[in-house]
Amino acid sequence: MSFRRLAVLVAVNAAVILVVAASSAAAVPSAASRGLAPLRLRGASDGGVLPARRLTITVALAPRDPRGLAAFVGGRHAPLSARAFSARFGPAGATVGPRCSHARAH
């Protein structure tokens, strides 16, 4: 996957998380968290330890301009291309690169 495609994917995931977090009545953000709060779902149960195998995960980073993104999502606007969305709201490349390296290493 190219770096640009990964950056767009991360930006879109961050936007989805913001929209879900803002609209979900069942989600309760942790009081101790900063930035994007983790979602804690009511009624969830611990499924135990996962078997040792390779997992595919998606990591979402905080948007570059969370207030601007919230205003954009909540208002009327013309559609944005993935490239324009990433340039406006996506995390900076200097943020994405080290996070991807860390995720791959662990």
Could you provide a short overview of the structure?
With 106 residues, this protein is mainly alpha-helical. The protein has helices at 3-23, 66-74, 82-89, 93-105. The protein has a domain at 1-26 and 58-94.
Description:
The chain has 106 residues and is mainly alpha-helical. It has a domain of 63 residues. The protein contains four helices and no strands. It is globular, with a radius of gyration of 16 Å. 11% of the residues are buried.
Features of this protein?
106 residues; mainly alpha; 4 helices
Topology readout:
Elements: H1 3-23, H2 66-74, H3 82-89, H4 93-105
Q: Regions with pLDDT < 50 over 5+ consecutive residues?
A: 24-33
- H/E topology pattern: HHHH
Largest sheet: none
Which class of secondary structure composition applies to the elements?
mainly alpha
The overall pLDDT, averaged over residues, is 76
Report the total helices. Answer: 4
What is the overall silhouette? globular
